[in-house]
Amino acid sequence: MKLPLRSFAPFAFVLALAPVSASLVACSGATEQPHTSASAVTKAPLGETTHGAVHVVGAALGDVALRADQRAKLETILKDADARHASSSGPRKELVLAFADQVERGSIDRAALAPKIDAAKAGGQKVRPEDLAALDQVHAILDKEQRAAFVDALEDHIKDAWRGKRAHGGKEGHGGKDAPAGMWRMKQMAERLQLTDAQKDQIKEKMKAQHAAHEKGGGKGEHGKRGRHGGLRQAKQALESFKNDDFKAQSLGDALGGGADKGSAHLTRMIDVAEAVLPVLTPEQRKIAAEELRGFAARGDVPGER
């Protein structure tokens, strides 16, 4: 069964998480520097020790030909951003851990999770002003040609992550060249749980019913067909707008909403899936699933994301 997981919304999400450093604020009137022998440009990895969305941004910047001074500024910005997001990740980890405990018990208590979801959202919103400001700073550091190269590279890296290449050391995921990493993780989880054929059939039917419920009413809402297509258009427009000289990060935030909201929505969908699937699992299988979730929390990931 092919689940409705494909979307280009991560384009905008990753852009919204681009980092900023208070010590490296550039003026809005920064001018482009000519590429002379005194300012030779090279390509080299950036942000290799960072994590999550910051790492994706750094990988894309590493594919852009940069001057040494640009590279030094961007490297520091990426490291500062990684530290900032690590310091604000506590509430989200607590949420995933609480969710894991409920999965192991075999019963989802939405009321108990609600305040933790709110706290996780607040943690993301706390750093969001700096994240949006970062886009303006990165925009100012790069010249027009470099911005275009960055956008193209970022799209490629997001597609690679979406297809599961990073999870396979640069190779395609189990689902083929267009299969998202989430599909590979679901398959990996099924293998870890050692689901029986009967369990697989039950889960497939439950997921099919859940998908039908989301699509009911002509695709209304954020996760319906219209919502996904609208999000696709907005994300692609936001990504392309970074190439423009008059780009302003705040306009991206106004158009697409907060990354924290999207992360919260993702976790809400996970809870929906858990409620449908848990009755099918044995206690031992629930324990394995909970351990997997705790592993995600330890790494600072949102399970199934990217």
Task: Describe it.
It is a single chain. Helix content is 65%, strand content 0%. The protein has 306 residues and is mainly alpha-helical. The protein has one domain (9-28, 42-299). Helix 4 runs antiparallel to helix 12 (283-299) and helix 5 (110-141) packs antiparallel against helix 11. The radius of gyration is 20 Å and the shape is elongated.
How would you spell out the order of helices and strands? HHHHHHHHHHHH
Poorly predicted regions are 1-33, 166-184, 218-223, 256-260
Rg, alpha carbons:
20 Å
Strand content: under 5%
Structure class: mainly alpha
What integer is the average pLDDT?
74
How many helices? The count is 12
How many structural domains in the coordinates? 1
Number-wise, the strands total 0
Name a few traits of the molecule.
single chain, 306 residues, mainly alpha, 12 helices, 65% helix, elongated
Give a short overview.
With 306 residues, this protein is mainly α. 65% of the residues lie in helices and 0% in strands.
Fold blueprint:
Layout: H1 9-16, H2 52-61, H3 68-87, H4 90-105, H5 110-141, H6 144-162, H7 181-193, H8 197-215, H9 225-241, H10 249-256, H11 259-277, H12 283-299
Helix pairs in contact: 1-9, 2-3, 2-6, 3-5, 4-5, 4-12, 5-10, 5-11, 8-11
